[in-house]
């Protein structure tokens, strides 16, 4: 994002993971069938009708999949949410191409919406995809005012509470020790800053005294 929004780069390349994917990208057709294709080759793509899209949606969909930065805009009712879910579906179906193999190098998809209602609608759509694929949903809904019953178990507070029970008992002892060490280091830092401030004041007095002696 920084490359385009901050640095104002006007050259948009294909995502790195697509360059390395070859013919591995999987897409789901409107019929429910799945097809593998080389995403950077136009002749490999199914038609708009096969994907259940109109011509404008089709161009936007291909652009979003094959570019590292894409903005899709349009008036209400033109299918922006529908298209966003289609893009998310492709990314989730091919997560092995772009996501890390462990929690330490994971690359989560971040969904940001203007309203809580819009966010709930979008996440409900992603949840349906997980259910259709019989996959374990990996969703965390951040923020308050979630009115969706389907997303209740995926709110941040609920996920935190659920995972808290899974942590081994010695984890809490380690956490308390770590906090004590942080407090100790903070105290040492504060004492060090106090000593530095005192030395600076002392140096200031020395300078003032030397100037008086000269006079």
Protein architecture, described:
- With 215 residues, this protein is mainly alpha-helical.
- The chain has two domains: 163 residues, no CATH class; 48 residues.
- 53% of the residues lie in helices and 4% in strands.
- A hairpin with a 5-residue loop joins strand 1 and strand 2.
- The longest helix has 46 residues.
- The chain is extended and about 75 Å long.
> Per the principal axes of the C-alpha atoms, what is the gross shape?
extended
**Cα-to-Cα separation, first versus last residue:** 61 Å
| Helix and strand sequence | HHEEHHHHHHH
Q: Number of helical runs?
A: 9
Question: Quick recap of the structure?
Answer:
The chain is mainly alpha-helical and 215 residues long. 53% of the residues lie in helices and 4% in strands.
């Amino acid at each position: 994002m920084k490359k385009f929004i901050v640095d104002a780069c006007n050259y948009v390349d294909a995502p790195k993971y697509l360059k390395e994917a070859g013919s591995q990208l999987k897409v789901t057709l409107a019929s429910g069938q799945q097809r593998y294709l080389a995403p950077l080759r136009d002749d490999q793509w199914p038609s708009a009708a096969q994907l259940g899209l109109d011509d404008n949606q089709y161009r936007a969909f291909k652009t979003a999949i094959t570019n590292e930065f894409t903005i899709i805009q349009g008036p209400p009712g033109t299918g922006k949410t529908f298209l966003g879910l289609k893009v998310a579906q492709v990314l989730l179906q091919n997560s092995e191409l772009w996501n890390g193999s462990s929690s330490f190098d994971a690359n989560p998809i971040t969904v940001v919406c203007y309203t809580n209602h819009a966010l709930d609608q979008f996440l409900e759509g992603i949840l349906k995809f997980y259910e259709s694929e019989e996959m374990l949903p990996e969703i965390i809904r951040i923020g308050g005012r979630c009115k969706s019953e389907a997303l209740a178990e995926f709110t941040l507070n609920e996920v935190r509470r659920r995972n808290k029970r899974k942590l081994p008992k010695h984890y809490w002892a380690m956490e308390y020790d770590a906090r004590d060490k942080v407090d100790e280091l903070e105290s040492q830092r504060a004492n060090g800053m106090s000593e530095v401030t005192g030395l600076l004041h002392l140096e200031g007095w020395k300078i003032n005294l030397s100037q008086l002696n000269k006079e």
